[in-house]
Design goal:
By secondary structure, the protein is an alpha+beta fold. It has helices at 2-10, 14-79, 82-93, 99-115, 145-156, 203-210, 283-333, 348-407, 411-428, 437-455, 480-490, 523-530, 537-542, 544-557, 585-590, and strands spanning 119-126, 131-132, 163-170, 176-187, 193-202, 220-224, 230-233, 250-257, 260-268, 275-281, 459-465, 497-506, 509-516, 562-567, 573-580. Among the domains are: 80-206, 2-Layer Sandwich (Beta-Lactamase), CATH 3.30.450.20; 410-590, 2-Layer Sandwich (Heat Shock Protein 90). The protein starts with a helix and ends with a helix.
């Protein structure tokens, strides 16, 4: 699939590629911008709506507290009324309640009911469960035994505080109606239980206040008492975010029910313990946020259309220099190297055109140079063939001299000729030819044999190479420049000349030490030799051997391999090489190092 797409794109014209590229960029940018704007708007709106819901729920919760305080005062006016106290006291004592007491009780409570339209009925029970209620409370039948026992059980652990619950009562017309029940114990002056008060409230009294939280049809309101029991709700939806089981008095939450997201707030009254929870649907907010996304996407599509028109309008003028350049490239490919394109502008395309003209001119000149170099190369090949004969001629000459010296019984000079011939053969072999430390030491011995013939008894030679390092790979002619420097610079004014060569293995490395008793050097000279820069051309020529050795070690062996010099004036010089025990000779084959 990817190969097919690449081929399809490769066959498209540049103008088409520009249109497709710009269209994709604008479309992707619009989608990303629209989506980010959608999320940003949604986040900001949710934060603002959450704050508004929380503030509104707190205000409604405060109004409910006022309503509950009003009902609490209403219950106090009943509990502490003398006629109610006399009625319950007489009823509990067994003396019996007179007709006048009942009529006075009925008049007092009826007046209270008329003054408080939120109350449906009032029920007063003595300790024996006998009920008293005013005549205006006959809208509902007597509390059934189950409800009575439920109310009594809830009041057992209380000490006169108000308890709230919701239930369903049956009217005398046989209709079931949802009500809110407020109940509390009735205490005497000596704080003894005299009975209980049950007030049946109209749900509409709270609905008028709670309806302020219902703006949309899908909004929900839940009211819980201090025991987290549901007192009121305006919907049959099961919402969990407002259960009121949290530890915070005011919380804001998000919840999803049946695919619809809701923002909600829960407020718990510190005074009454009532918990008010409200949920508001985010469906319309999401629709408005999606409108922003759609508007941005549509704007992106319109931008694509405008961009395509602009590309079509301007591409002809912009692509004209490129077409001329393509035409020039076709001419050059056909062999017309003298073809030049015309440049009429001073922008980046003009730079390309001028570069093309310079390139074709340079190519023409290079072709002329190639013809000349081919002629010169033929002459160089003939010279090289002739030069290849010179080393063989020199070998043959040395062999002839050695044979002649043997015939004259001059074996000492004949051996010197053999050493010189071996050194010559070793030095003229390609740098990529493998060599070992044993081979390198053998050539050093040939060189020292020639020096021994020169200095005779003045020269003392000591070579100590451990058996385990003799087969270790090493660069060719790595030791010879060091040994040669001892004779050229170290022994020029010495009567007794001593040179020592050691080779051994240490901590996984090949160590080679070359020591002499020559005149030594100053530390400044040592630093200058080991430095990368030279102070003068003369110094460079004098130290080209040692610099060659140092550079070859750096290039071939890399880090961990190095050369050190210990020297002191009048006390000789020691050169110490640290190399890999098994040198990676593949690097030597890849580099033309000699």
């Amino acid at each position: 699939m990817r190969t097919f797409v690449n081929r399809w794109i490769g066959k498209m014209r540049l103008q088409t590629k520009m249109i497709v590229s710009v269209s994709l960029i604008l479309l992707i940018s619009s989608l990303i911008t629209g989506y980010l704007s959608y999320l940003t708007h949604l986040s900001i709106a949710e934060k603002e709506i959450s704050d508004q819901i929380l503030q509104k729920v707190e205000q409604v919760s405060a109004r409910i507290d006022l309503k509950l305080d009003e009902l609490y005062r209403f219950s106090n006016s009943i509990l502490f009324h003398p006629n109610v106290e006399n009625l319950l006291s007489a009823s509990n004592s067994g003396e019996g309640v007179s007709y006048n007491d009942i009529m006075t009780f009925d008049q007092v409570l009826n007046k209270m009911l008329l003054d408080n339209t939120d109350v449906y009925s009032v029920h007063i029970y003595n300790n024996a469960g006998q009920q008293y209620k005013p005549t205006h409370s006959y809208q509902f039948k007597e509390l059934n035994r189950q409800l009575y026992q439920k109310v009594k059980n809830k009041l057992e652990s209380t000490d006169g505080e108000m308890i709230w619950m919701s239930d369903n009562l049956t009217t005398y017309e046989g209709r079931n109606q949802d009500v809110i029940i407020a109940t509390r114990k009735i205490k005497s002056n000596r704080l003894e239980d005299e009975g209980m008060l049950v007030i049946v409230l109209n749900v509409r009294s709270l609905f008028t206040i709670l309806s302020e939280l219902v703006v949309e049809e899908s909004d929900t309101v839940y009211l819980y008492n201090g025991e987290h029991e549901l007192i009121y709700k305006n919907t049959d939806k099961e919402m969990t975010g407002g259960s009121g089981n949290g530890s915070q008095l005011s919380t804001v939450f998000k919840e999803e029910v049946n695919g619809t997201r809701y923002l909600g707030a829960t407020v718990q009254s510190e005074k009454t313990g009532f918990i008010l929870s409200s949920h508001s649907s985010m469906a319309k907010l999401h629709e408005k946020s999606k409108m922003i996304f759609n508007v941005i996407v549509v704007s992106g599509i319109v931008s694509i259309f405008i961009a395509v028109l602009l590309i079509l309008f301007t591409s002809h003028r912009l692509l004209r220099p490129i077409k001329r350049l393509l035409n020039g490239m076709r001419r050059v490919r056909e062999g017309q190297l003298d073809y030049r394109i015309e440049v009429h502008s001073s922008d980046e395309l003009s730079y390309i055109g001028n570069s093309f003209n310079s390139m074709t001119e340079h190519v023409s000149k290079l072709i002329e140079d190639v013809y000349e170099k081919q002629l010169m190369q033929r002459e160089a090949e003939l010279t090289a063939l002739q030069a290849q004969l010179n080393p063989h001629f020199l070998y043959n000459t040395l062999d002839m001299l050695r044979s002649k010296l043997y015939l004259q019984d001059d074996y000492e000079n004949a051996d010197l000729i053999v050493s010189l011939s071996q050194m010559l053969r070793y030095s003229l072999e390609p740098a990529s030819t493998r060599s070992t430390l044993k081979d390198e030491i053998k050539q050093i011995q040939n060189y020292l044999l020639l020096q021994k013939a020169r200095y005779e008894e003045e020269l003392e030679i000591k070579i100590d190479i451990d058996e385990e390092v003799q087969s270790c790979h090493i660069l060719r002619l790595l030791l010879q420049p060091i040994v040669e420097n001892a004779f050229v610079h170290g022994f020029y004014d010495q009567d007794e000349k001593r040179i020592s060569i050691r080779g051994f293995k240490q901590e996984g490395h090949l160590i080679i030490e070359i020591s002499d008793n020559g005149c030594g050097m100053k530390q400044e000279t040592v630093a200058r030799i080991l430095g990368k820069n030279t102070s003068s051309m003369a110094d460079t020529k004098k130290r080209i051997g040692i610099h060659n050795v140092i550079r070859r070690i750096e290039l071939v062996y890399g880090e961990g391999s190095f050369l050190e010099i210990e020297s002191e004036e009048g006390k000789g010089t020691k050169v110490r090489m640290t190399l890999p025990f098994e040198g990676d000779y593949h690097l030597v084959e890849k580099r033309d190092v000699s």
